[in-house]
Every structure is written in structure tokens, then in C-alpha cells.
Design brief:
- 32% of the residues lie in helices and 20% in strands.
- The protein is α+β, with helices and mostly antiparallel strands.
- The protein has one domain: DNA primase, PRIM domain (Alpha-Beta Complex).
- The strands form 3 sheets. Strands 2-1-3-9 form a 4-stranded antiparallel beta sheet. It has a 4-stranded antiparallel beta sheet with strand order 6-8-7-10, with helices on both faces.
- Strand 4 and strand 5 form a beta hairpin.
- The longest helix is centred in the C-terminal third of the chain and has 15 residues, at 150-164.
- InterPro entries: BT4734-like_N.
Length: 198
Amino acid sequence: MAMNIEQLKEHKMQYYRHPISNVVSHNRVGIYHLWQYITDPTLFKNATDTLRGIPEEEEKRRKAYKAKEFDYVLASGTFNARKDQGLIQHSGIMCLDIDHIGKDQVEELKQEFIHDEMMQKNFELELAFRSPSGDGLKLFVQIDLQQCDHQTWFLALEHYIWQAYGGIKIDAACKNVSRACFLPYDPNCYVNPLVCPF
């Protein structure tokens, strides 16, 4: 399923400034732009550090802070409204959200996905980074909509990851094409070498 650099540049996603209540899009971006944003300490580092400093038992406070302070993207395409029916053009990307892995296991699991030959052959990982909370993983995976639709790809990925990774679950909301993904600071964010060869 591997695409060349020009095809990868065509993946456009709808980008929004915080808070989550903002439904007026700021821009349309690609994988490379997201990698730049996520790895830039001047953008999201303070918010990320503050969120991770809130005690885990204060879940309501953590959710409220994340919703207020983090920019977000609709990874699966460009939209004229922030809902599935507002889709203009699918990006060929699905964001997978794996929660509550454990902070010490996130990097290890990310490396497993990066070097998963079956994953790269059938789905191709474009971007992988630690979630804002620090104990989850976000995976931006390329899907081929000529083979099947967004929801069918979600079921295929859900099944593969469940089977191959010992019962790890993907957040079921990822099946929604307008699923929002918050953008944290992660200096170790993985990006497909075709997108960013250096």
C-alpha cells in the first residue's frame, strides 16, 4: 500500500485551534505539518506538561483542561462541519487511539508498531505519538478506500491489533470519520520516512 511522497503530501486534514468548543477550522494540514507541530516545544509543551502534572485521580479536571488547552485535528479528511456528514474529502488516514497502556509501556508499544511488517504491508503507519495524558498512543494509519470504507477498515484494524497485540483495544469512537484527535508535545513522535526522510 506504500505511496510516494507526492501522494502522501495530498493527505489533508482539518485543523482546529483550542478549545474543543471551537468549530471554526484554522487550517488544512498534512502529516508533515502535524509532525512539525507535535515536535515543536514552543507550541504544546507547556500544556502537555501541565496536563500530565494533574493527578490521575482528578480525571474530570484532566478532561476539562485537555478540552480547553489543546489544538486538535480531524485526521480522516477535510470537512465543512465537524460531523461525519460534513466530510468533503477523505484523507486516506485513520487515527487510532489506544488508551491506558501505562506510561512506561508507551514507547515500547510504539516501536512494536513501527517495526510491525504486517502493519506496514497492509495498513502503513504514517505518524505515531504519545497521547496528551502520557499513558496512551495515537497512530495515524493509511487506509485504501478503494478496497473498503472507513468503518470496515476500522473493524479490520481493531481485529488485527486485538489478535496481534494480546487483546489491546482501540477506542471504538475511532470508527467515526469526524473523530477529533488532540495534539500534544512529543519530541519522539514517529513520522513515515517518506514524509520526512531526514
